[in-house]
Design a protein that fits this description.
The protein has 127 residues and is mainly α. Helices cover 79% and strands 0% of the residues.
């Protein structure tokens, strides 16, 4: 068993599950979406992105692109959260929460694509 591939797969799948955990719940209810879960989803997605650098295949390029899209979506969600709570002073209104969850759901779609590509790549692998 290749430890590098295990770590790679672990972080890709963990990024998707953390993102799913954050998105799951009522879209406009702030009580269903915790800031620490968004924070950990961002950190794990960034780690997964770093692990995807250096791959020189076409599928590796798509892996990296999907990871960058997920990072961008989660960072924009964090920016909306920070601006609603700290800059605007409006707090987590249902509108702000819906925007945060929507951006995170887009990142989740990119993570699902990445995990799907990982599974397809694994199934097609021949010894």
């Amino acid at each position: 068993m290749n430890l590098e591939k295990v770590v790679f797969g672990f972080f890709i799948i963990l990024a998707m599950t953390l993102n799913f955990g954050f998105v799951f719940g009522d879209i406009d209810n702030p009580a269903h979406h915790h800031v620490y879960e968004l924070f950990f989803a961002i950190i794990v997605n960034l780690v997964a992105t770093v692990l995807k650098f250096g791959e020189r295949t076409q599928i590796g390029a798509i892996h990296l692109a999907s990871s960058l899209v997920a990072d961008l979506g989660l960072l924009v969600a964090a920016w909306i959260w920070a601006s609603a709570v700290y800059f605007d002073g409006t707090g987590l209104t249902p509108d702000a929460t819906a925007s945060i969850v929507s951006m995170s759901a887009g990142a989740l779609a990119a993570n699902v694509l990445s995990v799907t590509m990982l599974l397809v790549e694994t199934v097609m692998f021949r010894r």
